[in-house]
Amino acid sequence: MVRKMRHETIEAANGKEALAQLETHPDVGLILLDWNMPEMDGMELLDAIREKRGSLRKPLIIVVSTESEREKIMQAVQRGADEYIMKPFTKEILLEKLALLGIDYDNRL
Q1: Could you check whether the bond before residue 59 is cis, i.e. omega within 30 degrees of 0?
Q2: How many CB atoms lie within 10 A of CB 18?
Q3: What is the mean pLDDT of the chain?
Q4: Cβ atoms of 30 and 59 closer than 8 Å
Q5: Any domain includes 46
Q6: Averaged pLDDT for residues 34-52
Q7: Residue 61 maps to which CATH number?
Q8: What is the pLDDT of residue 81?
Q9: How many domains does the chain divide into?
Q10: Domain carrying residue 38
């Protein structure tokens, strides 16, 4: 979906690879972060990103997960996620969450 918005994307198979990608590409502005990943889960990666970036809100982070318990959602937000999307999701849901973060794509998806 993000590629269809004409944005460059970078993929990582696990949290450790994602952290390495962020070192190589420090200008990443948005991360769609899966909670359940091998080697380093999404919450560990979220902690590492926020620790490294300090009080900076960049990159924006949307946690994407099948975890639907209210406690899990609150945990992600408390640890620094900007938004949360439950899988599976549609392009309309993604656009809605991006709009909440101040990103409007004028339905270019």
Answers
A1: yes
A2: 24
A3: 87
A4: yes
A5: yes
A6: 91
A7: 3.40.50.2300
A8: 94
A9: 1
A10: 28-100
Lowest-pLDDT range, 6-10, 44-48, 77-81?
Answer: 6-10
How far is 82 from 100, CA to CA, in rounded Å?
A: 9
Q: What is the pLDDT of residue 27?
A: 87
Tokens standing for 36? 């359940």
Query: Cβ(69)–Cβ(77) under 8 Å?
Result: no
For residue 37, what are its two tokens? 């990943």
Say what the pLDDT of residue 54 is.
Answer: 64
Structure pTM? 0.87
Whole-angstrom distance, CA of residue 89 vs CA of residue 8 = 21
Does any domain span residue 1?
no
**109 lies in some domain:** no
Q: What gap in Å lies between CA 1 and CA 45, rounded to an integer?
A: 22
DSSP state string for 13-78 = SSHHHHHHHHHH-TT--EEEEES--SSS-HHHHHHHHHHHHTT--PSEEEEEES---HHHHHHHHH
Question: Peptide bond preceding 88: is omega within 30 degrees of 0, i.e. cis?
Answer: yes
